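Re: that chain you flagged

S.,

Sorry for the slow reply, it's been a week of failed gels. I finally had a moment to sit down with the sequence you sent. For the record, here it is as I used it:
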Amino acid sequence: MNQSVEPALQQDQVLPLLEALPRWGNTVTIVFSGGCVFEFKGPFPDGEHAEGFYNLDGPVPGFHGHLRLEALQRVRFQDKPHRGSDSYAFVFEDGSGHTVFKVFLGRDSEGVIIPAQLEEFQRIRSTLIV
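Prediction finished late last night. Pasting the structure tokens below so you have them in one place:
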């Protein structure tokens, strides 16, 4: 499996992806802040677009937050092994190319990538390949 860094979703495609992710089921969201890494395992929360933010409003307990949409300039497709297993993620980046957060495809109880998620990930990526 080769690491894929291009193509990438552009800023106008970020919101549709964020709105679709809650329907994917369990994923793993990794948030980077000040040299720290925060991890949330479970469905990506539903949200609502208001005043330049995408406001995450999942169940409690759960993952909540406010994503400033203008800060999310592109989404790369990560496709590389991690600790000996296939790994796929959407990598949300700011205008400087820094990773803000990643959403990794979920795994079943045996640690296998959820097939429907992988199919959709590949479908989205294939629509961007020229």
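What I noticed first: The longest strand covers residues 26-33.

Talk soon,
D.
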